[in-house]
Each structure stands twice: as structure tokens, then as C-alpha cells.
Design a protein that fits this description.
With about 290 residues, the protein is mainly α. It folds into 2 domains: about 25-60; about 85-285, MetI-like (MetI-like fold), CATH 1.10.3720.10. It has helices at about 15-55, 65-75, 90-125, 125-140, 145-155, 160-180, 185-195, 200-230, 230-235, 240-250, 255-285, and strands spanning about 80, 85. Keywords: Cell membrane, Membrane, Transmembrane, Transmembrane helix, Transport.
């Protein structure tokens, strides 16, 4: 008697990763567009409230200039009008460029010095004992506290401004680097030493890669503090420079130019932080993952 053949039921398999990828990409894109939309909405609400306050004249236009006045100041400082070029002979972009150059040089030197200081503090206990109080002391000082002394030492040209930005940028990255280096996985360090790695090789191949996420956070904080200190650095002989523009406009009660300078600093600061955040995500993509 023939045995009936058993036909296998077709099994439904899960969609391959290639089919799930477009859906995940669409979800990420929608979430990104939602964030952008919320931020644009918040900006529109803020501008509407600003316009409403100035239209109701709750404060004098000298104290709170309307958005139209700030826009007019932007146009005037961005070109040549009635034979006058920009503000004090330089356009707004040129003033901002000078400030960014000062930040790049001063904060860049401060970050490099902070990295070296942090690595030494994290790897050599006696260096940490000697330098930790000095770094903590610098962290507590506001920039204006030592700017006057820097002017006495270096004059009123570029040197005191660069020194101020460097000193302001050094402590955050030094503290972050020292903490991250000291917390490097001991098992990896011992394994590297067991295979004959020299101290410099252990630091370069094991310690610094494991400490990189925290170091990059310290770098972001350092540039943020330096950027907030640029106005203080440019209060003396700061033209050209965006801080000098704000200081000079304050003397003549040009509140529209002052607000414009603040907006320029804020927007460019957000762009710089975005670049540093993208660099952090690229160099340390594993940060925040289990």
C-alpha cells in the first residue's frame, strides 16, 4: 500500500535586513524632520513674541529693539551704505571672522595644552598632585579677573586676547582628559604591557582610544567657554571683532547692533558646536552605546 506523501507547509520567513532597512531609514528621517520642525516652530514663536512685545511698546525701543530694526542693522553692517562700509570700516562677516580666528588660535592652543596636561595628570600620580590644584584654581577664575593682568603684561594688541582664550579653554579639557585617562581599563593596559608594549605605545594604542569620548566632550566644553569669553577678550581694542562691535555699540546706545552681535555670536556658536558634535560622533561612534 503506497504511503501518502507529506507536503511541507510553506513557512513564512522574516523579511531580510535589506527589506527592513528602508523602513528604518524612513523612521530616522521622519524623526529628524520632526525635530527640525519643532525647532523652527519654537523659533517662529519666539520671533512672534518679540514682535508682539515691541509692538505693544512694553519697553522703549531703545531697550528692546524690534526685529525690523535688527534686520535693518544687519543690512547696514553687511555692506556699504552712504559711503560707510559695514560697522567701523568692516562688515559683520569680517568682524565675526576675526573673532573666530582668535578663538581658533587661542582656544586651539589651550586645548592642546589641556590635552598634554590631562594625559600627564592621568598617567603620573605625582604630576596630578602638583597640577590639579592649579587647574582647579584656573577653573574658578572668571576671564575678566585676569584679563587686566594680561593687558599689563602683554599690552592691548592680540596677545592678551589669545592668552585669555587659551587660559579659559585649558581647564575643562585638562580635567576631562585626566579623568578619562585615569579610568582606562586596567585589563587592557596590563595586556598591552604583557606583550611588551612600551609606555608611550600603551598610552597611544590603549589609553587614549578608550578615553577619546570623554576627551571630545572636554574639547567641546573648552571651545564653548572660550567662545563665551570672546566678548570679554575684545572689550579692549577689540575692533575689528564681534565683541568689539557689541562693546562699541553699547557706548552709543545702539541696542539693535548689540542684539545683532549677540545673535551672530549665538548662531555661529551653535554651528561650531554642531561641527564638534559631528566630529565626536565620527571619531567615537560607540559613545553612549552598551
Amino acid at each position: 500500500m503506497p504511503t501518502p506523501s507529506l507536503s511541507a507547509e510553506p513557512r513564512t520567513s522574516a523579511p531580510p535586513p535589506a527589506d527592513r532597512a528602508p523602513a528604518a531609514t524612513r523612521r530616522v528621517r521622519r524623526a529628524r524632520l520632526r525635530r527640525i520642525g519643532l525647532r523652527l516652530l519654537a523659533l517662529a514663536v519666539l520671533l512672534a513674541l518679540w514682535q508682539l512685545v515691541t509692538a505693544l511698546r512694553l519697553w522703549s525701543p531703545l531697550l528692546v529693539p524690534p526685529p525690523s530694526a535688527v534686520w535693518h542693522a544687519l543690512l547696514e553692517t553687511s555692506g556699504t551704505h552712504d559711503g560707510v562700509r559695514g560697522y567701523q570700516g568692516h562688515t559683520l562677516v569680517e568682524h565675526l571672522g576675526v573673532s573666530l580666528r582668535r578663538i581658533a588660535i587661542g582656544a586651539g592652543l589651550g586645548v592642546l595644552a589641556g590635552l598634554v596636561t590631562g594625559v600627564l595628570m592621568g598617567t603620573l600620580p605625582w604630576v596630578r598632585v602638583v597640577l590639579e590644584p592649579a587647574v582647579a584654581f584656573l577653573r574658578t577664575l572668571p576671564p575678566l579677573a585676569y584679563f587686566s593682568l594680561l593687558i599689563i603684561w602683554f599690552g592691548i594688541d592680540e596677545a592678551p586676547k589669545l592668552w585669555l582664550l587659551a587660559i579659559a579653554a585649558l581647564p575643562p579639557v585638562a580635567v576631562a582628559t585626566a579623568s578619562a585617562v585615569a579610568s582606562a581599563p586596567a585589563s587592557l593596559v596590563e595586556a598591552a604591557r604583557a606583550i611588551g608594549a612600551r609606555p608611550a605605545q600603551v598610552i597611544g594604542a590603549v589609553v587614549l582610544p578608550s578615553a577619546l569620548p570623554e576627551i571630545l566632550v572636554g574639547v567641546r566644553l573648552s571651545f564653548g567657554i572660550a567662545y563665551s569669553s570672546v566678548v570679554a577678550a575684545e572689550t579692549v581694542n577689540g575692533l575689528p571683532g564681534i565683541g568689539g562691535v557689541i562693546r562699541d555699540a553699547q557706548r552709543y546706545n545702539q541696542s539693535d547692533v548689540v542684539v545683532l552681535g549677540l545673535l551672530a555670536i549665538g548662531v555661529s556658536g551653535l554651528l561650531i558646536d554642531g561641527v564638534l558634535r559631528a566630529l565626536e560622533n565620527r571619531l567615537a561612534p560607540w559613545r553612549g552605546r552598551d
